[in-house]
Amino acid sequence: MTVGLLLAGTLPRLLPPEPPGPVGLAGHTARYGPPPAVPGRRQRDALIAEMARAGLTGRGGAGFPTARKLAAVAAGHAPVVVANGTEGEPASVKDRVLMACSPHLVLDGAVHAAEITGAAKAVMVVHRDVREIIDEAVAERARARLDRVRLEVRTAAEGFVAGQASAVVQWVQRGVPAPTATPPRLAQRGLRGAPTLVQNVETLAHLALIARYGASWFRSAGTPAEPGSMLVTVLGTVREPGVREVAIGTPVGQVLDLAGGASAPLRALLIGGYFGAWVDATEVLARPFSAAGLAHLGAGPGAGLIMALPVGACGLSETARVMRYLASESAGQCGPCVFGLPAIAGLLERLAEGRGANLGLLSRWLGQVDGRGGCAHPDGAVRLVHSALRTFGAAR
Amino acid sequence: MTGGARLRVDFIACDGRGLCAAALPELITLDDWGFPIVSGPAVPPRLLADARATVRLCPMLALRFDTGR
After folding, report:
1. Architecture of the domain made up of B2-62
2. Which of A68, A105, A192, A197 is most buried when burial is the number of CB atoms within 10 A of its CB?
3. Interface of B with A in 8-67 (CB under 8 A)
4. Quick check: A336 and B31 CB within 8 A?
């Protein structure tokens, strides 16, 4: 492994120190060094093992170990890589900011993931806001004859579930961004039947850096159990909302400080995304922003989102609004999701407006929706409501 | 092998016709919107034949019999 041009432990890693607009190939190479050599077939296992040592996990929200996905896909015949830059999470902008500022880092990651899984092609599925930037970066690489892997670019579908891995594959394959039933797993049978690695674009950017600098360098930030850095979208009641890169395990209060700090006393934070959880501000500010640090509060870093809610705002109406949105964003395939989410949203609206709602019925419906869809859309919605009831509920 | 046998609903395919709940009330009830809820982790041996018959009954081919992978 090359000696890191980036000092161990220093941030930001993924974003340029000053955001001047997209970094071109020359600036990219000057900062990170040349891309890693194309690995031979015999080196692939060692590189996947290096990813396992790094402890890189998916940054799209699910947090699945990247090395396990790489190994599963590499074991198949003629695989394909799909870089997921859909960013369907409505409040999140971190993937777009990453692709807009560091397009070549994401492309390096997609190319390297293809090389170590034996894929001949990587399909970049990117949010429409950054389509031209990615197109330009791909053209620049083609002029420089940089990659042997073929890069294809597609504009992502809009909508919340469009970012779900199987929905991304369906979008590329037949123009319909709807999840499919599991099994089969995408790693076995995905895009047009090929073993398919679907990986979030931030995950790929980290992968590109691990390929250059190694697992130990990656682990010099973050916690031993959850190494590395992550991008976080900080918004709501903070002075400078936006995307920040933080070491995993940074106290939540410090993450808010990186965004200028709270602009008013805080009541609660929505952590992880619309699929995340509400937590009481006083309980969470000193906690590490990591899965381990947030688990006992029923929360997790998810897709890297922190939304701050001030004292005086109504958490239940905020949750009702999000639930109405999630209900409208159902792919419309599964009954419990199609009928259950609007029903639950309706009850929450009544509750928030103080019109009196049947909490027993709410609890029954939450139970009847949880785990009963082709994707995790209903499960995430249920988790959010449970956290709202804990944080803002009648019990408090 | 039959110890891990369980019924699974493919909710993408399921249309909520409700035949399964009528045919196998011991294991399948309906939620408030008419979609099946399969109770219990595994199909007890005495209901295996009935469960197989119910799987064949589903007009949407949405009910599956998993013999534990």
Report:
1. 2-Layer Sandwich (3.30)
2. A197
3. 9-16, 31-35, 37
4. yes
